[in-house]
Amino acid sequence: DHIVGGTLMTMRDTFLTQAEYSRLVYECVAQDCSGSWEVWMEEPALLKPRKLWTGKQVFTAVLMHYTRDQLPFTMYADSKVSNDIWGKNNGAMHPLGSEVVKACLPGGQRKPFRHNMMALMTVTGAKGSVVNFSQISCLLGQQELEGRRVPRMSSGKTLPCFAPYDAGARSGGFVGDRFLTGLRPQEYYFHCMAGREGLVDTTVKTSRS
């Protein structure tokens, strides 16, 4: 929550009135105020038609307060949210380079990144990952067992509902549906097979370590 809140607070179009700005700064530094210490207050970013402060100025005021009489606090790091995410450029987000995911995330969503809570949560790193986002909004993709497509039984079928030696993508474990709208029974079964293998691998590695 604090990561998402910080992202929303520091957006360029986030403006606060004097009452909102003062309240946020005071709540952050109230426990540390003592004696004659004065709370650092930034000049308003906008003067007309009325005085407004940005969300970034709240962080500036808090940092200036806690670094009083000390070396200034600085932190240099690459932003987790790339520039492509803010605009209409889809970017290469999916680790497998899926064209479907690149077309859907995040530019293909009905709500853009900054107003899409799922995108905001995963892209900023607050919770979840792009893989979770793609499986919910786009598709689950190819399910693998031991690094290969779903194996066939002696009958030549991967599941009884498919024809023998069916070479189609769906019969080989490709899941073209998503969690948001639901999976077909055979897709759900393939996904459970891959998930079970992952649980077994995790258990074995844990016992060996």
Automatic annotation (TrEMBL):
<dbReference type="GO" id="GO:0006351">
    <property type="term" value="P:DNA-templated transcription"/>
</dbReference>
<dbReference type="GO" id="GO:0005736">
    <property type="term" value="C:RNA polymerase I complex"/>
</dbReference>
<keyword id="KW-0804">Transcription</keyword>
<comment type="similarity">
    <text>Belongs to the RNA polymerase beta' chain family.</text>
</comment>
<dbReference type="InterPro" id="IPR007083">
    <property type="entry name" value="RNA_pol_Rpb1_4"/>
</dbReference>
<dbReference type="Pfam" id="PF04998">
    <property type="entry name" value="RNA_pol_Rpb1_5"/>
</dbReference>
<dbReference type="Pfam" id="PF05000">
    <property type="entry name" value="RNA_pol_Rpb1_4"/>
</dbReference>
<feature type="domain" description="RNA polymerase Rpb1">
    <location>
        <begin position="1"/>
        <end position="65"/>
    </location>
</feature>
<protein>
    <recommendedName>
        <fullName>DNA-directed RNA polymerase</fullName>
        <ecNumber>2.7.7.6</ecNumber>
    </recommendedName>
</protein>
<keyword id="KW-0240">DNA-directed RNA polymerase</keyword>
<dbReference type="InterPro" id="IPR038120">
    <property type="entry name" value="Rpb1_funnel_sf"/>
</dbReference>
<dbReference type="InterPro" id="IPR045867">
    <property type="entry name" value="DNA-dir_RpoC_beta_prime"/>
</dbReference>
<dbReference type="InterPro" id="IPR007081">
    <property type="entry name" value="RNA_pol_Rpb1_5"/>
</dbReference>
<keyword id="KW-0548">Nucleotidyltransferase</keyword>
<feature type="domain" description="RNA polymerase Rpb1">
    <location>
        <begin position="182"/>
        <end position="209"/>
    </location>
</feature>
<dbReference type="InterPro" id="IPR007066">
    <property type="entry name" value="RNA_pol_Rpb1_3"/>
</dbReference>
<dbReference type="GO" id="GO:0003677">
    <property type="term" value="F:DNA binding"/>
</dbReference>
<feature type="domain" description="RNA polymerase Rpb1">
    <location>
        <begin position="110"/>
        <end position="175"/>
    </location>
</feature>
<keyword id="KW-0808">Transferase</keyword>
<dbReference type="GO" id="GO:0003899">
    <property type="term" value="F:DNA-directed RNA polymerase activity"/>
</dbReference>
<dbReference type="Pfam" id="PF04983">
    <property type="entry name" value="RNA_pol_Rpb1_3"/>
</dbReference>
